[in-house]
What does this fold into?
Amino acid sequence: MTAHPETLPAALPEGLRKAGAPRGPAGVLDADPTRAGATAPARIPFNRTHVSANELDYLTEAVRRGSTSGDGPFTARAVGLLREMTGARQALLTTSCTHALEMSAILLDLRPGDEVIMPSFTFVSTANAYALRGAIPVFVDCRPDTLNVDERLIEGAVTGRTRAVVVVHYAGVGCEMSAIGELAKRHDLALVEDNAHGLGGSYQGRPLGSFGRMATQSFHETKNVQCGEGGALLLNDPELAERAEIIREKGTDRSRFFRGQVDKYRWVDIGSSYLPSDVLAAQLTAQLEAFDGIQSARQAVWHAYHRELAGWAADNGVRRPVVPEGCAHPAHLYYLLMPDLDSRQAFIAHLAARGVQAAFHYQPLHAAPAGLRYGRTAPGGCPVTEEVADRLVRLPLFADLGEAALAQVIDAVLTYEVSR
It folds into this structure.
């Protein structure tokens, strides 16, 4: 089986050619194995960072300014763009999404023995941030369709020690925030969104990251917009803003000092060094300014996969991503659910032999050594999480994936047949 090249150009040129040039030191990855006498398929990485039009100029400007510490002019610009995109009352740039989650745990005043409900199918930082405060992560299973936390199972995990619910919008597809928000309100629980995948996504027309008291963002190099390593804490509760600023500045009121609100800054609370350099903020500002172009390119790739692989998936018992009505996703990743672990591993090897790097994803936190030590599993266990963790594989998806490279990935997929 082969891809249908006549259907690819109609959907791809605008998205793939206008992601906010330049495309990076080597330009668009246009993997054509027939060029320059090549005898083997070009290697297509799982991810490649995009370099936006103003990025190098902004980096140079930040370095030449003579002061590169945090909360400089590029930090202010990036924060303004984030607030505009998410509707957050306040946003604080951080050195990672992990650190933003750690800040959320401090802001919640968690104590040893407090419980925080979260999905098992997530990155380790979601649990680590709360375990560091002595709280107990309580792992709930995911839905079989979206792979988000199953909102129907959260109530059964609530106890008298539950303090918060943390949701993760997997692949940027929104969790069932109406039901989860009502549950959190009914039990007087804080709601936190781990929105590492979801910048630009929405639920029922409302931006992801705007539902919880707090939300966290990731700007790691694998995200749609990135600065290598970085993150942000979005604050939708104005009562948290002043303390969050102090926590981010090592527990001091240094920011108030620089605004002239106090005559000296002092240690007033616990905290850590969560403030990124303005050099990182300069890179992030350029990426955020190019967001629409980056998104157009990623959406084109996502929809090409979804369209071209539909028949193959049905023939081979493979499930494609599910996006419920009312959810708009930001094309953060494209995954396939293979029938079982053996077929998943064989599929990854098959793609690798054809020059395509694919990757599996999260391993269940509830069954991890630290999950068993520091957390507990909600009643009923996490059987769906265990199953999808063995079956899931992610295809290359980045803004500079050229048309020939995309066709190569699709053709590599279509030549694989699941053993019956």
